[in-house]
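**User:** Hello, beginner here. Are you able to go through the protein record under this note? It all follows right here:
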Amino acid sequence: MNIKPYQPEIRFSDIDALGHVNNSIYLTYFEQTRIYYFGQLISEKWDWNKFGLLVARNELEYKVPILLNDKVSIHLGCKHIGNKSFTLDYRVDIERGEQRFVACVGASVMVSFDHQQNVTTSIPEIWREKFGALQSVTSTPA
């Protein structure tokens, strides 16, 4: 499956007193990446109340700080699919002039959830098919 990586805009408000993207902002970038990939893989007209998600766990490993003028690309993959949950992984690449770095790797455990009934649900088959086709982006070096 060939989806262009998500490219967030680095906002001045994302930068902390040390001059790099604050660590808490990465989770927002991961959320934006998930929304982008769901739109590409599933549909923008998905009923999120009936077929929704909960984040059960986030993991991040910071490697190189992101600076204001860096060009950022976030790749998303799928490490595991269970019955009601799946694990997405992320690789945050940056370009700084002629240099390229992996700035961060991370993962999110996502739980399929019906917000109308307030219960966990089995992963919809279309999610299983589309996300299952995505290879992990953190299991091999960038």
Q: What stands out?
A: The radius of gyration is 16 Å. The chain has one domain: 12-132. Strands lie at 52-62, 71-81, 85-96, 99-114, 119-120. The helical segments are 25-41, 125-132.
